[in-house]
Structure formats: C-alpha cells, structure tokens
Fold these 4 entries.
Entry 1:
Amino acid sequence: MKRAAACLLIMISLAFISGCTERDRMYRESRVLMDTFCTITVVSASEEKAREAINRGFAEIERLDGLLNYFSEDSEITAVNRAAGRPVRVSRETLDIVKKAVHISEITGGAFDPTIAPVVSLWKFSKDISAPSIPSRDAVATALRHVDYRKIEINTAASEIYLTEKGMELDLGGIAKGYAADRAVEAVKAEGIKAALVAVAGDIRGFGLNPSGQGWRLGIQDPRPETVSERPWEDVFATLELRDRAISTSGDYQRFFIKDGKRYFHILDPVTGFPAETDLISVTVIAPEGYVTDSLATAVFVLGVEKGMKLLESMGIDGVLVCADKKILLTEHLRGKINILNPAYQAVNYSP
C-alpha cells in the first residue's frame, strides 16, 4: 500500500551542522521514488564521496522499485500477478522480499498478508467526500477468496514464485519501502560512509551517529492534531533517538475518509477485507531492519493492543502504541527513552 505522507520527521537542526568539524559534515538530498518522497542523509569528510554514496543509495531504491512496484506494467511483481496459476522466475531480490513477507505473515497469523491486493483494489480512500467508495460486502467476500499468504509457493532453487490460484495478486507496498531503506543503507555503507539515514516515506533506517555525535533524533507524527496543517508530518507528539535501527509508523490518519461519522482508513484487516477494527490509532515499531518495522507496524495495528504488545515483546522488538484516548503504551525497553512533547498524550504502563 502506498503511504500518502511520511509519518516520521527527521529532526536535523542547524545546531547539528554548526557542531561539525571541518572533516565531519552532513549532506542531504531528497528525490521522489517508489511513488513517494525519499531522503538520504550522510555524514562524510568528503562532499564527493557523500554525493557518490547518496547517488548509489537512490539508485538502489530505484532499481528495487522497478522490480517490486505493483502499479508498474514492467515490474516482476506484475509479472507474477499476471501469471497467477503458474510459476514465474524472478530476481534474487524479489525472491528474498517475498520470502520475508511470507515469514512476517506467518509470525503475525496473517495480520500482515501480501496477497490482500484484490481487496485493496476495491477501496478508494480520499478526504474528498465525493470520491471515497465503500465496496459491497459481497464484492469484498469475493475478493477475499484470493487472499491467503499460505497459497504463495516459493522455489528457492529455481528462483520461482508461484501464486497457486488464478485471481491472486501480490502487493508488497506494506514491506517494500522498509526493504528498500535496508538495501539503500547497505549501498551507502559500501561507499565507505560511517553514518547515514535513509528515509523512504515514513520507513527510516539509520546507522552511525549524526555530526554532533548523537543518535538520529526523529519525531513521531501526531495522529490527532488539534489543527489541520498543510505539512502534517511536521506536527509531532513525541521524539526519540535512533541508533543503528530502523523505524516505521502506521496509523489511521494517513489515508482515510469519514462517512456517516465513521472513519474508513487504508489499513485493511486481511480477515474481513474492511478497515481494521482496532483500539489503536498509531503504531511505531523500532527494529534492526526496515522490512521488519514496515510490515510489523501494519500487523500490530491490525492486531490491536493486547495481541500487538504480546507479539512485539515476544520478538524483543520496540514499539510505541497510541490508543484512541491518546494513551501511549511502550514496550519495556523503550520506557524512559521517548520524549513526549504534547501533554495531551500520556504514557501509561501496559498490563495484560
């Protein structure tokens, strides 16, 4: 699924830059790739090396988009979808991310499912009240017959992916941006860069320290701001420091519409085919790899507080879960490590 805007703000201030030595400077560039806004920030003593690393990082994101873009006629994912019912040979990268997607589906009990595309295509999310559409339950039920990650077969030796039923489709939008951030980080590292931050929309992966010698400071977008802003991703309710980790946020405020007083948003429950009936409005996940944070942020949102917290704690992965009443639940390791800026939000202890 595409995200409409970044849900995490990279908080790089001029104070950081002024603290740099002559041999330690920060270089930053943004481009539109994967149908979204991507930013790469690197720390280097050489502008030439920094630009080379940034270019290589963007090239990797662009290359992966060519393989994984659901909306591209020429992508490998589109080829797999067209050939549903027979195996398709794919690249090593496509095989790798599909294997990762299936694994996340398994450990989340299907709360994340990359085969949900037939249902997603029925929905149209827009704040324009004349544009949104709510599909009929019969249409959703029909599409759900083609949703089941267990019907994805992977032949590693032959590098083939097989959707076992016609009508099935893969959409890796819930994991591809985090995966791309992971691969871009590796591309930047290969250029000898010791510290960098890669943001593919709201999926961010960082390593090393910023020029001030600290971790990368990030802000988490306010899911219920008091006023409407033209740049909502800059309205944050909390900040935290990222050190050699990835971070992603999912919420019900990114793409949605309200009809008859009910909020309909783009995070669909693969079981029902409708927006998740959850007690959460925002989930932020922090883990070593971006593909994990990207997919788990969605899965935990669908699972809700109790099952979501249990999953994160069992995996040793950090999370910030925001409930509808603006209560914030933190996994154990994160307690005391998040700075809440908005007094309307309050951290509370979670007790099952």
Note: The radius of gyration is 20 Å.
Entry 2:
Amino acid sequence: MKIIFKLIIITIILTNSFNSIGQNSGDSLFLWPDGAPGSIDFELNEIHQVNGILRVRQVSQPTIQLFLPEKEKATGAAVVICPGGGYGILAIDHEGFQIAKWLNSFGVAGIVLKYRLPDDRIMEDKTIGPLMDAQQAIRMVRQNADKWNIDPEKVGIMGFSAGGHLAATAGTHFNDIVGGITDKTSVRPDFNILIYPVVSFKEGVGHMGSRRNLIGQTNDFNLVSKYSNELHITEATPPTFLVHSRDDKAVPVQNSIRFYEALLKYDTPSEMHLYNKGGHGYGLGREGTTTLSWPDRCAAWLKEIGMAE
C-alpha cells in the first residue's frame, strides 16, 4: 500500500510539472477538440515519467504546443517538431521543448507535436493515427498563420528517431490525406529536418520496434513498403536536412543514407551530416562529440534555402 501511495504522489508531481512547463512556455492546443476521425471512445491515462529524460506515454488527446519567437525577431518560418521514442513514448523535452527554444533563438517558431502513439484501444486504424496528427498540425499552423505571425509557405516538419519516421512520412505522403479530412489546406511541409531518423521499415535497415508499434507483427509487403519512406521520394519531396551518427546502434545510419540517395535522383536541395560518434537520442548534440555542431549547420541550411534569415 505504501508503494502504491508513493507512485500516486510521484505521478501527481510529474503531471503538475509537465503542466507547468506548458503554462510557462506557450499555448497548448488540442488537435481534435471534438475527437479525431476514426478514434475509439477510450481515454487513456496519460503518463509522464522523468528518469533523466521527460517521457510521455499513452497519449489519447494529441496537442500542439506553441513556442513563438519575439515578433521583432520572427522570420516567418515555423517547424512542427515530432519527438521520438519508437512509437511507444515521446521524449518530449530534449527532442521537443528544447528544440523549440533553440529554433526561437534565431526567429523560427517551434510547434511541439504531442501525437497519439499507435494503440488499438483508441484508434480504428493505428497505422494512420500519428500521420493524421502530423497532417493536422501542419494544417493548423497554416490556418493560424496570420495570428501566429507565420508565413504559410515556410512551414516545415522535423523529427527525431521514430519522430523522424513520422516527419519523413509527412514529407513523402502529403498527397495521401488520412482520416477522410476534406479541408483543402495543404499538408505538404515546405522542408524536412530529420535527426537520426527511422526512415525504412525493411528488415536489416529499419528499427523493428518502431515498425512493430506502428504496423504490428506483420510481413505484409505492401504495408512495409508503404512506410519505407525512401521508396516514396519524388520530384515533389521538399528539401531535407539529415543528421546521423556512424555508431548509432539503435537506428542504422543507412536510414539517412538511403533517404539522401533517393533525394539525389531528383536533385532535391538537401544536406546530410554524418558523424563518427554520437550514438542515438542526443537531441541538440552529445557532449564530447562533434554532433554538437549540427544545430548551427541546420540553421545555416535553413537560411540557404530561404526559410530563415
């Protein structure tokens, strides 16, 4: 009984801590105030865990949280940020809030997406739930562009690890509007930023944990191919910035390499940075490695492609 009581107290503390982050950082808005299309009426108890890293589990009410730069500093660009976590958790602090604040430092709006994690209890089709949320986030940013001081033609998407898979899916499947949404607002991102991303679901390359969580225990060729995003790059795929480390033991560096090689076929303005050391999950960079340089290189790239100043 004492152990259960302590767990309840810890949960309350973490929840209050998480909520206070939202209140101090900017508005948090529901993506689907009236419920997402295809959702099942089963609300999960959202769990926030802190063990060196703030993690969120069991998301049933997806949101975007706004981090807007000072008006005099704003460039008009905005980035929807998809934290990673294998489609099982969201590492929402170092792959979300910290990233948004970094973007604000050079005048770019950061929109942190707390997307639903694939779960048969809350979705009729869990394979499209995260993408539906990502598309809705892009849609909402464009619909509120004037209010948030954003240029609707400078809206990109960014993702880390499995969040990188979601961002890559949004950047290659924008003509596939999931959820039966009829709104005509474009959900094509103007640029992609993929940091140690899961790109492929092919065996030997992709991250099998992310694959299992999103599409289940299946070897269905069509479904695996659908979410192997390197296979869906076309001349319409937006410019892309990629970061990966050679010694990444969680998500092989071939994920980024294959995506970049496919971009080359269409001469898409893109840039890739591969680091000797860094491993996985380092957010803005890992101390003692050259991965600390990627944020500066990314900011310079955004300026080069005309998305920042």
Note: The beta strands are 28-30, 47-50, 54-57, 63-67, 78-82, 109-114, 155-160, 192-195, 240-245, 271-275.
Entry 3:
Amino acid sequence: MLWMEDQNLLGSEIRQDYRNGFYSIMTLGRSKRPKGLEEETIETMDISNCPFERANDSMTTDIMRYGGPWQIKVIQNKYPELSGNTPFGETVDKDGLLTHIGGYGYNEVVIESPVHTEIFEAFSPEKLIDWLNVIIDREETLYARPYIKYVQVFKNYGVIGGASLGHPHTQIIAWPVLIGLIKKELDISKSYRQTNGTCLYEKIYDIEKGRVLIDNNSFFAIAPFGSRITAESMIVPKRHVSYAGELSSVEKYDFISILKTVLLTNRKLYGNQAYNFTIHEIKGDPDFHMHLEIYPRLSTMAGIELGENVFVNTVIPEEYAEEFRNSLKNSD
C-alpha cells in the first residue's frame, strides 16, 4: 500500500471512487511541471529553457533517437503519472470500499521534431509515418514488460488541451490495468459480438453514414452520433485490427493521411484551437477494434460535466459533419 500511516504518498497510486466506479491517478510532483506555454507566443517565445530543444539534450533522459542529428526523440517523462519503480499490487480495505492499485507503469514522451514551432498536422506524410513507426516501436517494447495490459498514446495541444510545453510532442503511458473508457469500450464490444456475431466497429460506417467526414481505402472518419465534445471525431480502420502494429504500410499511410486532414480542416474551421487526441487500441485482444478519437477544446467542462459526467455539446454532430465536408469541397 502506497498511502502510509504518516500520510505521505509514495510514488503514485490508482484509486477507484467507490461511489461511482471512476478511477483517478494520485501522484506527487506534477504541479511542478513546466508552465512556459501559458505565456508563450511566436513573438515572445524563449526556447532557451525548453528541455525538448536539441541544445538542451542534457536536460532529458533519452530512451531512443531517430535520425542523426535526431529528428524524433523518445525520453522518459520527468513528471510521470506512473512509474516502473512503483510496486504493482491491488489492495482493498476491510470494508471493501477503498481500492488501492500501485501506480506501476511507464510514461514516455515522443519529441516529434527538433523545431519548436512546427505544427504536428503540418508535418509531411513521410514525417508522420516516421512518427507512427516510432510510436509502434515503443508500444511493442512496453507491451512486452511485466504486468502491462494497455499502452495509451495521446497528444495534448495547447494550454486548454493540457500541454505544459509548446514544443511538438506526443505522450505514451503503459498501464498495469484496464480501467476507464478503454475498459467500457472493450466490454461493449465483447457484448455486441456475443449478441450479433460481428464487430460493432465494422458496422459503424453504416450506422454513422450521415456523419462521415472523409474516407479512403483503409480508414474513415466520422462525427460520432453521441459526441461528447463539439467537433469530436473518430478515425476507424475498415479492416479489423486491434492495434496499430497490425497495420500494413499502405494502411499506415491512409491512417496518417486522414488524421492530418481532420486536424488541418478543424484548424481551418476553428483556428488555432487546443485539442487532444488519443489512440484506443489493445494489443492481442481480438474483440477490440482500434480507433483514434480527436477532441477539439472549443469549450470547457462545467457543472453538468463534472457533476453528472454528462457532456453538453453545443454543435450537433450532423452540423459539424456538414461544415467539415463543405470545407473540404471548398479546398478542392
């Protein structure tokens, strides 16, 4: 147990709220992480203290470099939510209410470019393929480690999106347990297959036909019927794969092509807004269908979202889909 009698939190700990089943990571030190992005603009930018610059390589603990001099670099997260040094284990108190899970896991940061001002969605297709291959390489390594059940890849862009540094980067977290949204999605997918004999996500193109944003030979993007976030979108492979490492070279290109198009079109529609995206995937689970979800941060959560876990979306998905498709037509 990490929470000791003297009330010192050692490492990190995953706790389940016995009232509603939601999970939270309790961790120390992240309040001290960099906050330079809050003041940063192109005009006032000072990159001398950015730890992701090539000139500041000594400020980070490297895991791998791609290219020489490096074009993509993977480092250990200096302010990790989970740590490989934390003992893994789960305990429940005598009343069965307080669940403690050791915060064992791994946090890595993929620095996508040596150039501080580069924008992810403006990368060339070749650079995005390199990024995806580095992501898959790290996932393979992390999935091979003891106790790891799920590797999450996500990007936070902009202050509202939770990014603490403006330098382009992606984060990877390797989890010892399946909890939260990924667990709910897996349970629903298993239940749907048991009832209907097929994968739910292989039916989504037809289910969401009026909300399709764009498609190509291997992937399609939709504005989901039940979107929680304004201009939320989801990118789905047409072939059933559970994990990005299963994609062919052609599918990888189709994947980054649609991701690039969606992010650039959102930028055209809404300007330089903060956003998050996360890849939902579980290696080795045939019931799970990989997909990527994008959340533009056009509004903030308030009482309804925080109090009820019910989201307020002020732009219906059908309207967003129509605006998106019109924007693509006008770009032709």
Note: The CA atoms of residues 132 and 279 lie 11 Å apart.
Entry 4:
Amino acid sequence: MKVAITGKGGVGKTTLSSTLARLYAAEGRTVLAADVDPDANLGLALGFSEEEVNSIVPISKMRTLVEERTGANEFNKFFKLNPQVADIPDKFAREINGVKLLVMGTVETGGSGCVCPEHVMLKSILSALVFRKDDVVIMDMEAGLEHLGRGTASMMDQFIVVVEPGARSLQTYEKVKQLAADLGVYQVRVVANKIRSERDCEFIRSRVPEDCLLGFIHYNEQVIDADRNGLSPYDCSPLALEEIKAIKAKIDAT
C-alpha cells in the first residue's frame, strides 16, 4: 500500500499519517513513513524526541548527496534524470516504534513544474519506494497543492485528503481530485478531522461521495495536547486511535 496524505495546513495530516504508520507497524508490517513537509513534524508524531528530530537532515538538503547522485554541481548544470537512489531509504531512514522515517524535505525554488536536481532526487526516491512491494509507504505531504503540480506524488496508489468541516477545506479536496487525475491517480479519498457534532458529519456527507469517505476523527483535546507536547497521538488518545483503526479497516478493505 502506497498512500499520500494531503490537505490544507493544520487539518491533521500528520496525526493521521503517524497513527496509520504505527498501526501497520504493530501488525508486523514493514512501514516507511516519508515526511515531505518543509515544516517536518512527522518524527515527533511517531515518537522521536525534539532533539532527535532536529538532528535529521532532509534528503533535499543533502547537497553533496544530490550532486553525487545526479551529477549536478556549480560547474555542471546538466544532471541525470534517473539517478541511482534505491539504497537511500534504508541508508538514511531513522526507525522508531517499528516505523522507518525518511525525511524528504521539499524543493524551495522553481515553483510548479520545477525540474531541478533536488526535485529529480525526491521524485526518484518516491518512485523507488513504490517498488518496495512488501512495504507500506505513507507520505505526509506538504500543505497546499504545489507538490501535485510538480508530480512528486504521482507514483502513489491513492491520495487521502484530510479535511475539516468547512467549505474552503472541501474546495481543496475537489482541487486534489482534479490534479490527481492529471497525474493518473484516480483513487482520492477523504478523512474528516476535528468533527464536533453530527451537523459537521452531515456537512461532510453532503459534499463527499459515500464511497470516497473513509471516516471521521472527532475534535480531541488529547490529540491537541500531544501535538503541543511533541508526543505521538498514538500513545495519548485512545479515542483517536480507535477512530483511525476504523479508517484503516476501510483502507485495507479496498
């Protein structure tokens, strides 16, 4: 299973990504969680300490590695479009609670459609992850839609869009569907987070087809406290854990 989890900033992508990763790891699966957010928080949510997270250098920032694999440097502006990267996930991932974390970083220049050595590296690594056929790969994407414009996540089996019960958040879901189809990814599903009432549930159901709706995660002070304290929501909120288990069951059933 290869899933990219996306959505607007602050909707709860990292909570869902980290908890799904730990649930699969608890089953004995080989799980690789890729953090593709420039404001990388997935490590904390998986259980790493703040000091450990701060010590991790994103792949996109490893200039020597990027130059070595792509052949690009200040003297040579031409570079390989298919660099050798199959060894990178195992070589640079950090493991905790049975989950291998690979902090990818992001490309900070070039905008939509950017083709640069860093982008080529990231896309090549993600392509390599797809071919790890026995692994569960979960990508915690950056906020917004620029990564879809670059095609960084085009190799994934499906996108899961985390939304809140509001019109702007649902607009993001519609845009993700359109862009995902352009990339050849037609399975785009929704998890609704920060639900406070049945009215919120009905709003989501009125905007999202039933077969695309994976489930609901209710507004939860324990999850907020976990985030505030740099702890894993998996360890802090039994209710959120049960709700995400139900979401996982739907993912596994398809």
Note: The chain has one domain: 2-252.
